[in-house]
Structures are given as C-alpha cells and as structure tokens.
Amino acid sequence: MSLTFKGDTVSGSGKPAKLETGITVSVPFFINEVELVKIDTRTEKYIERAK
After folding, report:
1. Using the 8-state DSSP alphabet, how is residue 15 labeled?
2. CA-to-CA distance for 1 and 37, rounded, in angstroms?
3. Which of 7, 10, 20, 45 is deepest in the core (most CB within 10 A)?
4. How does the average pLDDT of the chain come out, rounded?
5. What letters, b where the CB count within 10 A reaches 16 and e where it falls short, cover 2-14?
6. Which CATH number do you get for residue 36?
C-alpha cells in the first residue's frame, strides 16, 4: 500500500497515513511515505513494514 501523510499528531504513538484504499491508519513516526506497510484489515491497524 502506498501512503499519504496528513501530518504528525501531538498525542499517540504515530502519525496518520491515508492508504490507497482511502482508509486512514496510524503508523509509527519512522515510516516514510515511499514505504510499504502491512495492515490488519480486520482492525485497520499497522502491523509492520512490508518486505
């Protein structure tokens, strides 16, 4: 999935990222826009960087 960032958040453990599907999930601050990530589609939660 490619990501689009909406900006850093003040609270929480990550930043919002909008996926190609239109879903917005919270990802860690170290994730860059060009990286692929794995998302649990049941909970819409970040799992890890994709390899």
Report:
1. E
2. 6
3. 45
4. 81
5. ebeeeeeeeeeee
6. 2.40.50.140
Q: With 0-12 CB in 10 A as exposed, 13-18 as middle and 19+ as buried, what is 27?
A: buried
State the pLDDT at residue 13: 76
At residue 29, what is the residue type?
F
Our count of domains for the chain comes to 1
Instruction: pLDDT band for 4, please (50, 70, 90 cuts).
Output: low
pTM tops 0.70: no
Domain ranges, residue 37: 3-49
